[in-house]
Specification:
- With 120 residues, the protein is mainly beta.
- The protein is 0% helix and 60% strand.
- It has no helices and eleven strands.
- Strand 4 and strand 5 form a beta hairpin.
- The protein is globular, with a radius of gyration of 14 Å.
- It starts with a strand and ends with a strand.
């Protein structure tokens, strides 16, 4: 009954910026974590930015200093501000959430993804 919907992807030139958003909706009792992963064609999905239980965000080394995650708890929405984009950032970006529902204390949910393409 939970839905994650990403938005904000698109085509951008090297050095440009994009802001992704992911909104969670449905029968949500609580959210333990919300973050971002990405997957390039032919590659495995990798972590981009996910806050830890201690409140510190795990960023991929390749995006540190360029990407920033934020969250609007009232709206169950997480954002990913991406600056200084590089062609290597080209991928489908997926929202991830660890959500508490009536079915279990912790369940993993994934959005359908939003494509980010960075041209050289």
């Amino acid at each position: 009954q939970v839905q994650l919907v990403e938005s904000g992807g698109g085509l951008v030139q090297t050095g440009g910026s994009l802001r992704l958003a992911c909104a969670a909706s449905g029968s949500i009792l609580g959210i333990n974590a919300m973050g971002w992963y990405r997957q390039a064609p032919g590659k495995q999905r990798e972590l981009v930015a996910v806050p830890t239980n201690g409140g510190v965000t795990n960023y991929a080394d390749s995006v540190k200093g360029r990407f920033t995650i934020s969250r609007d708890n009232a709206k169950n929405t997480v954002y990913l501000q991406m600056n200084s984009l590089k062609p290597e950032d080209t991928a489908v970006y997926y929202c991830y959430a660890d959500i508490i529902t009536r079915l279990g204390p912790r369940m993993d949910y994934w959005g359908k993804g939003t494509l980010v393409t960075v041209s050289s």
